[in-house]
């Protein structure tokens, strides 16, 4: 049997692309684990740095290991003046995810060339990328707003540092905590599109900057990470809870996709969406009301009543935008925040792919013609 006789599975749905011990999803029960640890536990008890270590190394760090990792990240958060300058010259109307791809490419050009089969060199590259990604994102946000670059503060962790570099002032404990939980929730998610993209590029033995820049491109799409921006735009376009039924009727009639709903694997409410919803409640209590939240609750009820039987429930992107909006983050920076977290997952998969690597080279079912006649250009109709 040749590949030509095989049955195509669109989107490779349900086809294993790798063996992995990094994360696990039970889509029926709504369970997500990182290295065997339930996401709810990590969101409550861990933090982004510890969770990153866990994803990269397979087990929770000791105090000394975590302190060493934090120190390393703090040492690598800075980006060169030349990188800041290039980022400041990127088109202001362009998307921040494109700016992140450009920033990662430039950072890769400046970083030491590594042997991707050397675990110690990989570990160092992972720290560099996890540390510098938030700085690249914040640098573009500042440049676009016509504000000067804010250098990272070596005393702040990833979440607090990002908010500091974005706003030029240190966040309060609640804001830093809320973003930190969001980063934990987004750090890995099995073989999603961007992770698959990362593993495909990794399998060519490309450098980790190329791996992450490619994954950023995949994450940007509205069916993947880009959905979180669309959710907020959608809620604002609906306008109020009362307007939900008519909006949904119109959407269903046009067979449009409702942003923030549905998932290839989850057929129940995404456990990350549940935790993000509690974060929305926390920020509402402490930072004031969020009008879009009432619309979101009405939309969830209406969509689940209509499509719940088909397994369509809120996914991670449904509530994250509401949280980020409350933190004062511009809408088109929601997906870059997803990237700041997911870079850890991509890198854990990069390391895993490198151990026992085989270049990805799937087959295809050819549907074109054979033996076509070459007609000279001046004889073509
Ligand atoms: N709104 C309305 N109908 C939907 C939705 C939705 N959001 N999602 C799936 N469906 C329907 C779809 O129309 C199809 O119906 P039918 O069988 O009658 O043709 C059925 O459910 C299966 O949908 P599918 O698109 O074939 O499912 P998929 O597994 O290929 O796609 C998805 C998964 C996430 C791309 C899709 O649910 C979607 O487009 N959702 C909206 C975008 C979104 O929120 N993306 C974020 C995903 S989670 C975080 C991340 O990955 O970044």
Features:
381 residues, mainly alpha, Citrate Synthase, domain 1, Cytochrome p450-Terp, domain 2, three-stranded antiparallel sheet, 3 strands, 3% strand, globular, binds carboxymethyl coenzyme *A
Short description:
The chain has 381 residues and is an all-alpha fold.
CATH topology of the largest domain: Citrate Synthase, domain 1
Averaged pLDDT, please? 96
Q: State the domain count.
A: 2
CATH superfamily of the largest domain: Citrate Synthase, domain 1
Question: How far apart lie the N and C ends?
Answer: 40 Å
The largest β sheet comes out as: 3 strands, antiparallel
Helix and strand element order: EEEHHHHHHHHHHHHHHHH
Percentage beta strand: under 5%
Number of strands: 3
- The CATH architecture of the largest domain is Orthogonal Bundle
